[in-house]
Design goal:
The protein is α+β, with helices and mostly antiparallel strands. It has 5 helices and 12 strands. Strands 1, 2, 3, 4, 5, 6, 7, 8, 9, 10, 11 and 12 form a 12-stranded antiparallel beta sheet that branches. Strand 3 and strand 4 form a beta hairpin. Helix 1 runs parallel beside helix 2.
């Protein structure tokens, strides 16, 4: 059984008192801007079957894209910083010292951001893209969307602070959860699937815990834990604990949760969620941390059982 004390949440700053619409608006703009960095992986990176070459790895309060290797043996890293609304690209290896370039997103369009990423990558890596990019997936509507005319981004400082705090929490909680499960269930439950990733389509930061595999090594039961932007399920964004079984819903007891609720799903077992608005309303940073750790531990134990 995972206990709340196994998940150290006292290090994160808590959600600042930003108005919800500021957080939602900022979250959606950054979601769109992140596609420019994902496109870097699609064009220069080595394709992966699970599309992880376009995904981010969560690193403290940043998004860090996977390293890009080039023919010149240089390695590029693309970073997106929530707190400052800044994107930067740096390169190591090859001739000369490490080089880099950065961009402040506020006031730019998504097209301008994407063009900057392409120019910077080509200059720093010393070669053009290895392949054509693919169109970005359908994203939540926002005036900055290219499909809606591509207005310039207007990033709110309070919204950025709140977004930074949300992913700070993910950077603290998810590795602690993975480490605790590894010590209880064994390292087989914690492989590459458990590395906290941020997928550009949904822009959720999540780890996938493998509870069971078949004789061929394929996953048959998993639990995903993460945080996701506002959507049709919950308009403020939410933390979730989501069970999956290969054969569909298996049915299990859904106990009362210390905050949050169970969300029914067609053809699958229910998912536990804790809304960002409920978490922000729990009190100071310490109270929020206690609630989040208690929610994740209780929901995970129910899904695992």
């Amino acid at each position: 059984m995972i206990q709340p004390d196994d998940l150290p949440m006292d290090a994160w700053p808590g959600l600042p008192p930003a108005e919800q619409h500021r957080l939602t608006d900022t979250w959606r703009q950054i979601h769109h801007a992140a596609q420019a960095v994902a496109d870097l992986g699609k064009r220069w990176g080595e394709p992966a079957d699970d599309d992880s070459h376009s995904a981010f790895v969560l690193d403290d309060d940043h998004l860090c894209w996977h390293a890009i290797g080039s023919a010149g043996k240089r390695t590029a890293h693309a970073w997106l910083d929530f707190a400052s609304g800044t994107l930067w690209l740096d390169v190591e290896g090859g001739p000369g010292p490490r080089q880099g370039s950065w961009l402040e997103l506020d006031g730019l369009t998504i097209n301008q951001t994407t063009e900057w990423v392409h120019r910077a990558a080509e200059r720093l890596l010393g070669e053009g893209p290895a392949r054509e990019g693919t169109p970005p997936p359908d994203l939540p509507e926002h005036p900055v969307s290219v499909a809606l005319g591509g207005a310039a981004m207007e990033l709110d400082d309070e919204g950025l602070d709140a977004l930074d705090a949300i992913y700070d929490a993910a950077a603290v909680l998810l590795p602690a959860l993975v480490e605790t499960i590894a010590s209880e269930l064994g390292a087989s439950a914690v492989g590459d699937e458990a590395t906290p990733r941020i997928w550009p389509h949904h822009f959720d930061a999540a780890s996938l815990i493998v509870l069971e595999r078949d004789a061929q090594g394929d996953m048959t039961r998993t639990v995903g834990v993460g945080v996701t932007p506002p959507d049709s399920i919950e308009g403020s964004g939410y933390w979730y604990v989501s069970p999956w079984s290969k054969g569909g819903a298996i049915g299990f007891q859904t106990p009362d949760l210390p905050g949050g609720r169970w969300h029914a799903r067609d053809g699958a077992d229910p998912m536990a969620l804790l809304s960002i608005s409920d978490l922000a309303g729990a009190g100071d940073a310490e109270a929020q941390g206690r609630l989040l750790a208690a929610f994740v531990a209780s929901a995970f134990n129910a899904c695992r059982a």
